């Protein structure tokens, strides 16, 4: 993996949005329809804002999340809500969307239905991931109940996940599926996450789940 350190967050967000757009254009040279798999949480909003202003044949792009919190789509913690408000608008309004949420009581109730549409689109083309200061990425949390299964070489496409650090049940793509993309990027900001990333470099994926997606990925960091 390689790490690009930017002078500030603005520079990171602008450069990474441009890089993702380039990766999507490259992928469109190989396939008719391409996928862009993105994180939720607090970090990627400014990247999404820039992508929505980027000229691209968005009608050939299908967007999906790395993971989702099992809350209704209008909930303030919904990653789907973030996508609908910040990415699937503007020039990107023509993009398709592959859901990671359905209105069911628990993620287990919807796993099969949601997995089918994603399985049909593998390998993924462009993946952007975030990372928490606890070294989780997507919803692959240290100590999570299904972490071993999500890190396995033969992991399913999607898993339900519950973790001590996560206030609600989650659904997440497995590391195997996240790693199918030819273009993979990880965005991290701040000194606390930079220290966590440095720790993850010498830990196993079971201890630091982000380590499972580092090989072959480009890490983009700004203070
Ligand atoms: O819960 C989540 O956390 C990570 C990191 O989020 P951030 O707020 O620290 O940027 C995010 O990548 C993931 O998609 C999200 O569900």
Structure explained in plain terms:
The protein is α/β, with parallel strands linked by helices and 223 residues long. The chain has a single domain, classed as Rossmann fold (3-Layer(aba) Sandwich). The chain is built from seven helices and ten strands. The chain has helices at 9-28, 45-51, 79-86, 111-119, 147-151, 175-178, 191-200, and strands spanning 2-5, 34-38, 61-65, 67-69, 96-98, 126-129, 158-161, 170-173, 183-189, 218-222. The protein has a seven-stranded parallel sheet with strand order 1-10-9-6-2-3-5, with helices on both faces. A hairpin with an 8-residue loop joins strand 7 and strand 8 (170-173). Helix 1 (9-28) packs across helix 2 (45-51). It is globular, with a radius of gyration of 16 Å. The model has no long low-confidence stretch (mean pLDDT 98). It binds the ligand O=C1O[C@H](COP(=O)(O)O)[C@@H](O)[C@H](O)[C@H]1O. The ligand O=C1O[C@H](COP(=O)(O)O)[C@@H](O)[C@H](O)[C@H]1O binds next to loops.
Short description:
The protein is built from seven helices and ten strands. By secondary structure, it is an alpha/beta fold.
Question: Which residue ranges are poorly predicted, with pLDDT under 50 across at least 5 consecutive positions?
Answer: none
Share of helical residues? 25-40%
Order of helices and strands: EHEHEEHEHEHEEHEHE
CATH architecture: 3-Layer(aba) Sandwich
The major β-sheet equals: 7 strands, parallel
Cα end-to-end separation: 19 Å
Tell me the number of strands: 10
Q: Which of globular, elongated, flat, extended, rod-shaped describes the shape?
A: globular
Q: Give the count of structural domains.
A: 1
CATH class wording: Alpha Beta
* Chain-averaged pLDDT: 98
Q: The CATH topology, please?
A: Rossmann fold
Main sheet strand line-up:
1-10-9-6-2-3-5
Strand content: 15-25%
What bound compounds does this protein have? Answer: the ligand O=C1O[C@H](COP(=O)(O)O)[C@@H](O)[C@H](O)[C@H]1O
* Broad structural category: alpha/beta
Q: Radius of gyration over alpha carbons? A: 16 Å
Number of helices: 7
């Amino acid at each position: 993996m390689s790490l690009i350190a930017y002078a500030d967050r603005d520079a990171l967000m602008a450069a990474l949005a441009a890089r993702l757009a380039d990766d999507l254009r490259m992928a469109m040279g190989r396939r008719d329809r391409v996928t862009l798999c993105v994180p939720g949480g607090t970090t990627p909003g400014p990247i999404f804002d820039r992508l929505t202003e980027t000229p691209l044949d968005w009608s050939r792009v299908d967007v999906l999340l790395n993971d989702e919190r099992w809350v209704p789509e209008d909930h303030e913690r919904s990653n789907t809500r973030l996508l609908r408000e910040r990415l699937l608008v503007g020039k990107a309004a023509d993009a398709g969307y592959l859901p990671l949420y359905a209105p069911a009581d628990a993620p287990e109730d919807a796993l099969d239905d949601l997995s089918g549409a994603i399985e049909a689109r593998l390998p993924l083309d462009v993946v952007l991931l975030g990372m928490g200061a606890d070294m989780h990425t997507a919803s692959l949390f240290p100590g999570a109940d299904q972490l071993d299964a999500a890190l396995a070489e033969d992991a399913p496409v999607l898993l339900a996940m519950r973790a001590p650090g996560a206030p609600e049940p989650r659904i997440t793509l497995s590391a195997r599926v996240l790693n199918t993309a030819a273009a993979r990027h990880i965005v991290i900001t701040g000194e606390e996450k930079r220290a966590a990333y440095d720790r993850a470099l010498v830990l196993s994926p079971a201890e630091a789940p982000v380590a499972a997606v580092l090989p072959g990925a480009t890490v983009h960091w700004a203070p």
